[in-house]
Write a structure and sequence with these properties.
alpha/beta; Nucleotidyltransferase, domain 5; five-stranded mixed sheet; 10 helices; 10 strands; binds 5'-O-[(R)-(carboxyoxy)(hydroxy)phosphoryl]adenosine; binds zinc ion
């Protein structure tokens, strides 16, 4: 009998250091170290992120192997996030993966972080099975750095059909949150506060972008001016209306996101619809998707929360498909902050 395929996945594109172990197609460990150092700055500070990755990477990898009960000598290959992301952060994971693969004399698998967010839909943990999207499907990938509609043809073939011209959806959430004095990352806080608010209390402009594209920077500015003007009239405005403000901005972002997805689905005649990325955790987005599932007769797929936000399980899983396909990277590979979609 041949040895089982065992892959170590490493993720370090932004502010989470992750390591995961995949064995025979299933995830056996998924360890993540979040970085609290950025909280006081209202956003990720690249320099601090790289340093924290350097501190966390060895213990995180050690913990993943230990919790999977796998010795490093059993590894078949190492998958790592090559990009896109913060260069200093990517360099830590890339250098670590290259060194470890060289020392163990095993192949490397370079992974596009955005592909991996989509591959998160195919993750199976030990003893679990879930329904998977059928090809071709459309995936709305919404995170702190990206907002994309992707036509997914196979595990390895994906086509970007729409993206943001400026800010990402997660950034729109985080910047709106910052404007009203919430901590970073503000997306989950807006989601929580919005639960008690009226989504139609305040109206914000719906930004326009051609095709299946998005634009959120105008909305950010409109929101900033709206809050500034209201505070000029009533200094307690934010404090007294927090839930309504959160529900209204959340409603606007979600409506804008889904409008283009509906359009793409109609134009391409595809009703297999998936969402991924950190913003896929948003409860309003999930709720509205469930309504569309009924009205548009969609099959809707949303990964488990732990696989929506940045994690290394999705990197190990994406690595598995590359491994099966024999798509290995060379030791000459380097981190790429702008790793493009077709790569
Ligand atoms: O995918 P992710 O973990 O990291 C990136 O690759 O960016 O996404 C993080 C983003 C942040 O902008 C965060 O505010 C947003 O996802 N986010 C949310 C929610 N949970 C995370 N936004 C809205 N509602 C949520 N529940
Ligand atoms: Zn991400």
């Amino acid at each position: 009998m041949s040895n089982p395929v065992v892959i170590l996945g490493i993720e370090s594109s932004c502010d989470d250091t992750g390591a995961s172990v995949l064995k025979e197609g299933k995830i056996h460990a998924n360890i993540i170290a979040n970085q609290d150092v950025h909280k006081d700055y209202g956003g990720v500070v690249p320099e601090l992120a790289s340093r924290a990755h350097q501190q966390n990477i060895v213990p995180v990898v050690h913990e993943a192997l230990k919790s999977a009960g796998v010795d490093k000598s059993e590894l078949s290959a190492i998958a790592f996030t090559r990009g896109p992301g913060l260069l200093g952060s990517l360099l830590v994971g890339t250098s670590f993966a290259k060194s470890m693969a060289l020392a163990l004399d095993i192949p490397l698998l370079e992974i596009n972080h955005m592909h991996a967010h989509i591959i998160a839909h195919f993750i199976e943990s030990e003893g679990e099975q879930s329904s998977k999207p059928q090809f071709p499907f459309l995936c709305l990938t919404v995170s702190g750095g990206h907002t994309e509609i992707v036509l997914v043809e196979t595990h390895l073939k994906m086509k970007l059909i729409g993206t943001t011209n400026d800010d990402a959806a997660g950034e729109a959430f985080d910047k709106a949150a910052k404007t009203i004095g919430l901590d970073y990352p503000g997306g989950p806080l807006i989601d929580k506060l919005a639960k008690d608010g009226n989504p139609l209390a305040y109206k914000f402009p719906h930004p326009k972008a051609p095709g299946y594209g998005y634009s959120f920077s105008g909305l950010k500015t409109a929101f900033l001016y709206f809050i500034r003007d209201q505070i000029a009239r009533d200094s307690n405005f934010v404090q007294d209306n927090k839930a309504d403000i959160c529900a209204s901005i959340q409603h606007t972002i979600v409506v804008v996101l889904l409008k283009k997805l509906v359009q793409a689905s109609k134009d391409l005649g595809i009703s297999e619809i998936a969402i991924s990325g950190g913003v896929a955790a948003n409860s309003k987005l999930r709720e509205e998707l469930m309504l569309l599932k009924k009205s548009e007769d969609w099959s809707v797929y949303i990964p488990k929360f732990e696989f929506c936000t940045d994690n290394a399980a999705m990197i190990a899983m994406a690595g598995y498909y590359k491994f099966i396909n024999g798509s290995f990277a060379s030791q000459a590979t380097s981190a790429s902050a702008r790793y493009s979609y077709g790569d």
